[in-house]
Amino acid sequence: METLLRLSTLLIILFTVTAFGQERKITLNDLPPAAKTFISQNFPNQAPSYVIEDKDIRETEYEVVMTGGVEMEFDAKGNCKEIDGNGFALPDTVLPKVIMEYIRKNYKGQGVEKAEKKRWGYEVELLNDLELEFDNNGKFLRLDD
Fold first, then answer.
1. Could you tell me if 102 and 138 lie in one domain?
2. Where does the Putative beta-lactamase-inhibitor-like PepSY-like domain lie (predicted)?
3. In this structure, what are the phi and psi dihedrals at residue 87, rounded to the nearest 5 degrees?
4. Within this chain, do residues 28 and 54 fall inside the same structural domain, yes or no?
5. Is 108 part of a structural domain of the chain?
6. SS3 of residue 40 by DSSP
7. Could you tell me the CA-to-CA distances from 49 to 14, 57, 83, 89, 124 in Å, in that order?
8. Rounded distance between C-alpha atoms, residue 9 and residue 18, angstroms
9. Of the residues 52, 76, 77, 138, which has the fewest C-beta atoms closer than 10 A?
10. How many domains does the chain have?
11. The pTM is what?
12. SS3 117
């Protein structure tokens, strides 16, 4: 009886682990339309190196790495959650205009290396490693060091 209980517990754990995080390689065409549009508008001259669909019980996310080294994460609807230029400036078009205008005005010559969309707004990292926070309307909140 004890052996049967242990075996049952082991099978439940094994099933749970496999159900919780299934990653599979997909093509760019398998992405949600919003993600495909974001990529084609912001990176028209780069091809994807690989595209991964990551499913778990709660949500589906997509990870895209471009041949130029840019990494992006999208939610199930295709909204960009995070983008990382890995040492290179991202195109100005990846963030709302009001945020880019603030950066151009206050941090001349600095490009955006990384941006992350949060519920409350945006976290933006510049090439000089300064981290800025903006609300959902693009209003500057604070410098995060």
1. yes
2. 61-141
3. 95, -5
4. yes
5. yes
6. helix
7. 32, 27, 15, 19, 24
8. 14
9. 77
10. 2
11. 0.82
12. strand
